[in-house]
Amino acid sequence: MGPGWQSGQMRQARDLLFLWNAWVQIPTLACMRRAKWHHLGHDRCTVPIYEASSPRGVVPLLKTLMSSYCTNDCKFCMFRSSRRIDRYRWEPEELAKIAIHLWEMKKIKGLFLSSSFEGDPDETVERQLETVRMLRRDGFTGYIHLRLMPGTGMEKIKESMTLCDRIGINIEFPNKELYEEMKGGPIDFSQDVMKRMEQISRIARKECQADVDTQIVVGIEDYDDEILKKTEWLYKKLNLARVYYSGFEPIPDTPLEKHPPCPKLRELRLYQTSFLLRDYGFKLDDMVFDGKGMLPLDEDPKFLAAKTADLFLDINEASYLDLLRVPGIGPVSARNILEERPLRDEKQLRSIGVNLKRARPFIFLKGTQKTLADEKVYRS
Ligand code: SF4
Description:
The chain contains 14 helices and 10 strands. The chain is α/β, with parallel strands linked by helices. It folds into 2 domains: about 5-280, Aldolase class I (TIM Barrel, Alpha-Beta Barrel), CATH 3.20.20.70; about 310-380. The strands form 2 sheets. An 8-stranded mixed β-sheet has the order 1-2-3-4-5-6-7-8. Helix 5 packs across helix 7. The structure holds iron/sulfur cluster. Iron/sulfur cluster binds near residues 70, 74, 80, 116 and 117.
């Protein structure tokens, strides 16, 4: 690998990655607290690396589009076909070489590869798959997350599932009507998106292959209760590993350029609620919405659910699922409580990971020397 190809292709990597970054960042709770990109200096240019969160910590990813040429004209997107922008397309071999190079340098641990829609879903995905095949052939054992196109054929889906760690198709909107209004192209929401996701999920469950995820755009004529109803269905029925929300940002020279952006706090409340549905045993009916079907922005959804349910439980008697309903207690601290019971005081609770500031109004210690219930202040 000579420095010539490296600098030229790194520059292209930078351009495509910057386009991607401007278009959509996958927000997570951590992302809202700190920047998720850092820049890797290389020769005469820099490559932005995306820091994805995982249960095992931060995972630096090369995150890019296979192509920014698109035949669709979606109203919200910077890559819509009618928009005049510079466009780029990777050659699979170039991208594979760069990914391997960065991986061998230990600058990335994986690749997130999406693409604009270049007319034929199978042809678009074939170019992504070519890259992935080369990577695996050349010994790349890093993480690969592939975003497939709506309508991708089953053969390509099955191959993707054997080569990648995670795959998915963006459902984009919580219902068919909004999808059809916003997406400018011949994609059938029921067949090409939802049915495909059901098929992918069936294969993933049966053959324990790649994880499955999707993404929903938030902030264009939608409501939190509808988005979360779809999210609950995706987690419970399709067993998705993750539903991402992408807050709408108006893009100049698109039909929605004057539409207000989605508040960051709304994304945060949606993520918090989606984790309660996925990991904490909550149902949508447990959540509190305002009269318009929106989550209140000024209060944490778990706190609101506990307050509305008048939650007040004995920490030494409560079941695992009941403990998970307490603000300030998560899966790890709930398991610790079960292992360490009987618990006697706040110090013990704190030492096993309970956030007492949040939990106090909702818990007490019965039959011990000190009961939190006796301290009225905790219920005020
Ligand atoms: S299909 Fe739509 S959302 Fe995807 S890149 Fe093309 S214009 Fe953008």
